[in-house]
Amino acid sequence: MTKQEFLRELEEVLEADASSINGDETLAELGSWDSLAVMTFIAMVDEKFGVTLAASKLADAKSVGDLIALLEDKISG
Amino acid sequence: MIAFKLILGNMTPITIAGVRITGIASAVPECIRTVDEDAIAFPDSDVSKISDSTGVRKRHIVTGNLCTSDLCFAATERLFIESGVERNSIDVLLFVSQTPDYVLPATSCSLHSRLALDKHCASFDVNLGCSGYIYGLWLASNLIACGSAKRALLLAGDTISRIAAPKDRSVALLFGDAGTATILERDDDSLPMSFVLGTDGSGQKNLIVPAGGFRIPRSEETAIQTEHEGGNIRSEEHLYMNGPEIFTFTLKEVPGMVKSLVTDYDAIDAVVMHQANKFMLDYIAKRLKIPKEKLIVTLENYGNTSSASIPLALTDALSQKLKNTSLNLLLAGFGVGYSWGAVTVTCGPMVMPELVLVPETAAMQFSQEI
User: Fold this and answer.
1) Cβ–Cβ < 8 Å for A49, A67
2) Choosing among B283, B284, B288, B338, which should be mutated to test the A contact, i.e. which has the most A CBs within 10 A?
3) Were B181 and a residue from B75, B196, B325, B335 both cysteine, which residue would form a disulfide, CB within 3.0 to 4.6 Å?
4) Range A47-61 average pLDDT
5) B49 is a domain residue
6) pLDDT tens string B32-75
7) Is B318 found in the same domain as B274?
8) pTM, whole model, 2 decimals?
């Protein structure tokens, strides 16, 4: 998956407007990064990447960049 | 270490033959709490969004002194009446719950007396929640299959609303209360049940009531409510649930467990999983390619009722069918512990009373018992 495709998936998880996330945001800025969003994100990653992310790692993530780093070898560009 | 891993990875189903489920009854408290009432309690939260995700629209919750035992008692009395089963024919009583009457004695002993069972009947409690009904079926059917009992009464229920902090969104909007009764008995003609069970205690901290046992006894300190992540307010005597961690655990363990029992859903009539929350059930079903029409979801009216959720879902969604015909069911429970279990079982025709509504006045008073 490319970074752009990942950002579009993330927008869907967060119910954000299309193309509103550019990858430089902190999760706090995005506002809706609550436990429901975390669970939806875990499901999305499980489905699209075949990876079950540890919730503890997600709890440590502070930015969209941190999320991308968790999937580093599976996101290109 | 290698041998340990091999054992962990080996989920060969356990098959138990010669046991039949002959009746299930479920009971809930009369009092209903709706999502609109929840919204008033959480003015700063998007309760309808949470409700869309969990699938919970209303829950039956206990009021006053109503306990799990009172709900299970009401379910059992109805089951005795409708099945005609003689009280003195019960050889073993199992009470599966995490919300007992007392620290001791076992609630099963109290219920044994209240139900006027025979003195020869063995009674014991099992402290499990989400997986508890599967463990109860496994225990009861093992006891019957090996000849220790001819007829077992399995009671499973919880009143988690009593330990859910009213200002903690992660639990206060999710849990409902219920008590159930299931009768199992020897029947050499019945089809075998297949079980898979598992445990991973390293996840205990993610679903826990820390205080109130002997590790952290209740004290003035444990009663202090403090604010946690997301503005949730609770004390150490309340239920703590880390939803994302539980979801990760579920994704890691449940698909593999179910696949070790069922790979083709043609022969399965219905799948009843622990009613954890709708989002989780829908996703697990998608992962396992369970046909939508076979997945039973009854959270809407009851919420997550812990150890009662599977039998309650059977009463709510399948009682008409189970009264008249035979169904191949896949049942699966997973959660607190972590603990998990699943079973394939052929049920029915059997006794399935209507849902029993229990008033607050049905609570047994301490003074009546001593």
Assistant:
1) no
2) B283
3) B75
4) 90
5) yes
6) 999 999 999 898 888 998 999 999 999 999 999 999 999 999 99
7) yes
8) 0.95
Residues B253 and B182 in one domain: no
Residue B132 in contact with partner chain A when CB distance is under 8 A = no
Kindly state the tokens that stand for B121.
Answer: 């009947």
Task: Kindly state whether residues B199 and B335 are assigned to the same domain.
Answer: yes
In a domain, B370, yes or no: no
Same domain? For B178 and B213 the reply is no
Judged by CB atoms closer than 8 Å, whether chains meet at A34 and B230 is answered as yes
**Domain hosting residue B72, numbered range:** 17-192
Three-state secondary structure string covering B16-71: ECCEEEEEEEEEEECCEEEHHHHHHHCCCCCHHHHHHHHCCCEEECCCCCCCHHHH
Q: CB-based burial of residue B294 (10 Å sphere; 0-12 exposed, 13-18 middle, 19+ buried)? A: middle
Nearest by CB to B247, which of A34, A42, A47? A42
Q: What mean pLDDT is predicted for residues B78-98?
A: 98
Say if residue B271 is in the same domain as residue B299.
yes
Q: Are residues B219 and B316 in the same domain?
A: yes
Nearest by CB to residue A36, choosing from B53, B245, B286, is: B53
Establish, for the pair of chains A and B, how many residue pairs have beta carbons separated by less than 8 Å: 45
